[in-house]
Amino acid sequence: MSEELERQTELSPEEEYELWRLLNQVRDAMMRLRDREVRPLGVTSMQGGVLWVLRSLEKAGVVATPAEISRWLFRQPPTILALLSRMEKLGLITCTENTGGRRQVRVEMTDKGRETYIAFARKREVVPRVIGVLSPEERRRLKLSLTKLRQKATEELVSIPPFLRV
Which pTM was predicted? Predict the structure, then answer.
């Protein structure tokens, strides 16, 4: 039996559920705390995340598209399109259709979006406070474990035929 298969068989349904529940509870609580922290800026943590992705893509010289943002944030394109529409109404971004032959939407931050991104990036007290309960060694191990889980989950997503993906 392979090492990976052996590890999988050691996971009881109770342990699987408990780990799944804990991962979701931590994620949900962190998102709610971050939303509360950035609410005075007039954005949600997800909108701030989009601004962060836009800034990262810009620095890398990559054209920001809804599909690219979806990939970075692990969200379905329709979810990202609705989010981008709300952000455009808030004046944080502009979405323009590329006329260069391919039908592609380009997403860019406005001046207001850049100002909001800077404020969002500076307002970061709650995440370090929560993660700070872990020692540097615990944080290193957590990062390795989460990276390993993300890699496996991504591999599993790729192996699912497109017509079966949710």
Answer: 0.81
